[in-house]
TrEMBL record:
InterPro entries: IolE/XylAMocC-like, Xyl_isomerase-like_sf, Xyl_isomerase-like_TIM-brl. Residues 19-255 form the Xylose isomerase-like TIM barrel domain. It comes from the Bacteria. It holds the Pfam family AP_endonuc_2. Gene3D superfamilies: Divalent-metal-dependent TIM barrel enzymes (3.20.20.150). This is Fructoselysine 3-epimerase.
Length: 276
């Protein structure tokens, strides 16, 4: 199983630090956060993508995943007028274009909060329409569109393995696939391993991280309450062959280099014990 670094927590550092550290600490790839100052898609389109390509080549560290900033201000395709939804879709199509140019295997999206007035019919109609449009563009670009479930602290639209399975019943595309961030199922008392059973061959990626009940905080592996050692053993026994990113996000933004080193060191120890 290949282990990636998510770069969001480095946003107060130069992007080069991410590539330096991914290589130094033993990560296999980068999941590139698509926000300023590092890799915002319009900036990449305007020429800054060449800087990222230089880092990929210099440090021999591929960008397998691209995760644009899109479930907060100013982009959230689940809320607002149709004009605003179309604007978010146009932005995410540009993000797919940039993911392709970076050589990424996948781009990640997560349906965020649809607002307190939206009912289930409105939520699912909007989500299905949007993911279908993005999936069609992803297929043209030959980039997988990975759709991520969120915690109830973040979304009222897409939160569980059942939600993901329902989406894939509605949208049957080889380029629209799913994933599991460990925190959403954990804080909802849902089975993490059920994602493998319910999504089957649509289960494409993991965000592996530790967590605590009652919060969506993403914690360094081994420092929360999720039984990660046993989880790695189960993933090994289940024959999981996909990728995983250690998603520290911004909880350690003051010292991302220290915690990125600790995170991969502890994850590798669990993997070794599990036989990966």
């Amino acid at each position: 199983m290949k282990i990636g670094m998510f770069t969001s927590g480095y946003q107060r550092n130069p992007l080069e630090h991410c590539f330096q550290d991914a290589r130094r600490f033993g990560y296999d790839f980068i999941e590139l956060w698509g926000g300023r100052p590092h890799a915002y898609a319009p900036d990449l389109k305007a020429g800054e993508i060449e800087d990222v390509k230089r880092l990929i080549e210099q440090y021999e560290m591929p960008v397998l995943g691209y995760t644009p900033e899109h479930n907060a201000y100013p982009y959230n395709f689940m809320i607002g007028s149709e004009l605003q939804r179309r604007d978010a879709v146009a932005y995410l199509k540009l993000c797919l274009d940039m993911a392709k140019e970076l050589g990424a295997d996948y781009m990640l999206v997560s349906p965020a909060h649809a607002g307190y007035q939206a009912d289930y019919e409105e939520i699912w109609s909007r989500m299905e329409k949007t993911i279908r449009e993005l999936g069609e563009h992803a297929e043209k670009k030959e980039v997988k569109l990975v759709v991520e479930t969120l915690t109830p602290y973040e979304s009222n639209a897409f939160k569980s393995a059942n939600d993901a399975a329902e989406l894939f019943k509605r949208i049957d595309s080889p380029y629209v696939v799913g994933m599991c961030d460990l925190v959403p199922p954990y804080v909802q008392h849902e089975s993490i391993m059920a994602y493998l059973d319910k999504l089957g061959d649509k289960m494409y990626h993991f965000h592996i991280i530790d967590g605590e009940q009652g919060t969506d905080s993403h914690i360094v592996p081994g420092e929360g309450s999720i039984p990660l050692k046993e989880l790695f053993m189960e993933l090994k026994e289940a024959g999981y062959q996909g990728t995983a990113t250690l998603e520290l996000v911004t909880g350690y933004i003051n010292e991302p280099r220290l915690y990125a080193r600790r995170a991969v060191s502890q994850a590798r120890a669990y993997m070794k014990e599990a036989g990966f």
